[in-house]
Amino acid sequence: MDRRRFLKHSVAVAATASLGSITAHPAQAASRNRPTLPMPELLDVTQSGRLELKAQTGKTVFAGGSSSPTLGYNQGYLGPFVRARQGQEVAVRLQNDLDEPLATHWHGLLVPGKVDGGPHQAIDPGKVWEPILPIDQPASTAWFHAHTFPHTARQVYAGLAGVFQIDDGLDADRGVPHEHGVDDLTLVIQDRRLDDAGRLDYRLSMFDRMHGFQGDRLFVNGAEQPRSPVPNSIVRLRLLNGSNARIFHLRFDDGRPMHVIASDAGFWPKPVATDELRLSPGERFEVLVDFRDGREVALITGPDQNRGGPGMMGMMSNIRSFASGLVEGDQRVLSFHPDGRKGRVDRLPDATGDSPASRPTAFDRRRHFRLDMMLGGMPMMRGMMGDGSGPSMGINGRPFDPHRINEDIALDTIEHWTIESDMLMHPFHIHGVHFQVLTDETGQSPRLENRGAKDTLLVDGRAEIAVRFTQPAGKDTPFMYHCHILEHEDAGMMGHFTVS
Ligand code: C2O
Ligand code: CU
Ligand code: CU
């Protein structure tokens, strides 16, 4: 089938998918009946400067089950892969054809608060939103997704997420592959659960509310554990963790390295090899992989290790993973089979970006953020009371309050932020900024994943970051900071700030 024709064929694609997960290894044997990786055509707006999006309902069949009601942008499930050019303006026209309000946020775009698409900018059913996005930032892979408080988790899970690539026209000079769908593959990785009829399942247990939803099945661009043809050359993978809560620990089943060339906010100075990459919800990485040996290989993930913690939480956590049958071993994400095509790039580039900005040493101000899963007492108990309210979470002791701005920040300043997590690791995201990680994991100098400029950081204990505020945001359309475990965000682990 035409692999560029995205989910129009999701029925056929999904029907051929075989079930469940495997415990890693022989890519070959298990992969023959896999669906082909769907790769939507790029929605390239570099010439037109116009982006038309329609949020709509759909029906999608996953893995041969009964059809599920889903949501998407311009299609029944998920959204397009948009490509824009650095330096241009993109005039968006987003029509909400859903029967509920919808806010859509450009995650990773450095744009002013008035077009950022946070929860303050929810559009009513039938209405249109027309923000103009000035694209003025380094080349990178960003994305967009629903951000409607407190329904973000459900809306994203149902499919409201797409990709937004920023291109600077220099990939050929850099020597990195850049032919979309050929040697430049964008992979939206998500976990899902299907019920007995094979329908998309988003029933939250009290454990899911606490830890965030985790599925036991893995989908890439909407297809379960697909298989992708690749040329026998160096291939670029743009990885996005679009899951609600699950953290991936990606590696190849034959141990071959991934050469990281970019993270959230843009290119690294040069490729850095690693055999494992941790990818938390909202984060992006771009890696180069060498397929010149012609061997089929699978990208796999280890189990999410964001569970446990001391005492009661640890115990609850373990009961949960037992109760929900979460996958404990390795799980296949997708596999690649080199098909003999000769690719364009057959050596790793020496340099891919500028050297990183030097670490700021003076700060205009310091702030402290404590992420808190247990506002108002043991939330597990509240869940068990069955009052339907779920846990209340917050930052610095307060749940998100749409009517109360948390911080007023001065434009064109650099601040030092310390973020502390509680018993779980939390992917902390800030709108309207890129930041540099100074320390992570309680005082350690940044691990490999956190060396580049970022907008989302998995906080494990305590982290310190240098944040530069270059975009204005007024009090009617402030920027957000929040945990990117979407159930935590909806439970109140979010704040908002102005920049002026
Ligand atoms: Cu990707 Cu405020 O979110
Ligand atoms: Cu964002
Ligand atoms: Cu969280």
TrEMBL record:
Signal sequence extent: 1-29
Keyword Amino-acid biosynthesis: no
PROSITE patterns named in the record: MULTICOPPER_OXIDASE2 (PS00080), TAT (PS51318)
Domain Plastocyanin-like: start-end pairs: 56-168, 231-292, 391-499
Listed Basic and acidic residues bias regions: 338-349
Record EC number: 1.16.3.4
Subunit architecture: Monomer.
Name of the protein: Multicopper oxidase CueO
